[in-house]
Here is the input.
Amino acid sequence: MTHEQFMKNLEVPAGVVDCVLDTDTYNEIDDQFALSLMVKSPKCNVKALFAAPFFNANSTTPEAGMERSYDEILNLLTLMGEEELKKCVYKGSRTYLKDEKTPVESPAAHRLAELAMEYSPEKPLYVVAIGAITNVASALLLKPEIKEKIVLVWLGGHSEQWFDTNEFNMMQDVAGARVVFGCGCPLVQLPCMGVASTFIISGPELEYWLKGQNPLCDYLARHTIEAAEQYAAGRVWSRVIWDVTAVAWLLNDHDRFMFSEIIPALIPQYDHHYSHDVRRHPMRRVTFINRDALMQELVETLRR
Here is the structure.
């Protein structure tokens, strides 16, 4: 790929784009919002949906998290009436990378590697990832040449102004993060704390904008409010729906929803910090989210 084409692929794409979503959908409610935005947006031609592993209070193992995410993807597609798209849902990794050279084989990793080979630097496949990056890193290890055929948009890590990068998506698979930051593919990073953390929604907004609009909106509003009533009972609360920002980068014509900058590719370290090398290939890092403009787009899309 020429330098000019590489830099062009770091820009927001024009028109309808072919894309896939890699998501730990059962982890938090923000994944459900993000997946729904991608499937319902007219700009996104969704080619596949991949279930990513996760391990926290909502799962007993990374594999269990992936399985629950797979089921939740199917549930959301039912709510949206997207039965045909269920044929394009794939189970992902059951563990994280054990090192930076050995892929975790899964239907998702193999399908991503196979699908990406149908694209080119001039017409790339947009890979939006909103969970641990194991599936994508594994696909790149299985078939390294796809680095020139994809653009990776990942919500992972924190902003450099934050005191560490011990963020859920990145800390689960630091080896995977090092693979994707170092492989040389066009990469757009949505940092969590300090950037995506500003994209929040409140209970009154959920009630006013989403409840009663359609089965999907009712589901998203109900589950967000029910969760908040458990962890913030009797207190003022708002909910960060981080993952929406990664999908929204594809829709960011004329910087409507966010600003970003070009920097040398960061180096995630195993001690949960970044290191730097100015000789590294460029990447794009989002620095600011226009919360109200993006919320308007999200609400309008979900209510369709």
Observations:
- The chain has a mean pLDDT of 97.
- The domain at 3-199+241-302 is CATH 3.90.245.10 (Inosine-uridine Nucleoside N-ribohydrolase; Chain A).
- Residues 228 and 234 are 10 Å apart (CA to CA).
- The longest helix spans residues 62-79.
